[in-house]
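User: I'm curious whether this sequence folds into something compact or stays loose and floppy. Could you predict its structure so I can see for myself?
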Amino acid sequence: MYSQEYIQFSQYVNAQGVLNPAYTGTKSLPSGFLLYRNQWVNIDGAPVTFAFNINTPIKGKNMGIGLSAVNEQIGMRKQTEFNAAYSYITKINSKSNLSFGLQVGIKNNFFDKSNAQATDLDDPFLTDQKESFLLPNFGFGAYYYTKRFFAGLSLPNMLTNRLDLQSAALKTKGFSFKDQHFYMFSGYVIKLKEKLLLKPSVLVKYLYGAPLQLNINSSLLIQDALGLGLGYRTGDALIFLVDFKINTQIRVGYSYDLGMNNLNSYNFGSHEIMLMFNVNNNS
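Assistant: Here's the prediction. I'll summarize afterward.
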């Protein structure tokens, strides 16, 4: 039995600092975000996620460094993850760059089984009411970008965690291609007219043996102040997006997922709030 290591963000374009270590340091200034996601509101034990990232280019070097943290609670399991990322950025020509990134970190999986309703009282997993397991993590990514286009590929969780049903312990299995979550990103900025931009993007998620999932978003950016968008996640949800500029350093985003599957009758959708920031050294 394998633990789920699948982070889902509707505002994935702005959350690449967590999803792809190669994104680290690709902006001209230190930048990052705070994110809160409440999925499938009204369903007990549904995922609730907090995420944080900050990353910066290293001045005078073709490198970037970053830190990220993710806390996700699903049912009786709470997973807290910390990662440090490093990227090396090479300039292909005057308009395009290619970045490769690595991340290393730790995960703490905490299980609170005090409220679990067991059908098998001898289940070894339920012997201890509360348990935690500390596990390592590694990730890799690549990221190509220009002023108006980006494309990336990442494997943010390269080590597979396995729940041993005999010992009821969560263990690191190592690298297995069949257990990898592949994230593939791409996006483009289209100038419709002065101060009016269209920003289509796609995120493809692949896991061996599971249906391919597409997240397709498109946002209209008005005078760099207001963004309005729609998205669709195959087999799952229609997504409404909005973001607005507070000042030159802070931007706020919100998304609402309207479910389009069998769970839709039992929940009030999913909410995601995001605070994006950059640090202007000259301010």
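Summary: The chain has a mean pLDDT of 88. The first strand starts at residue 31 and ends at 38.
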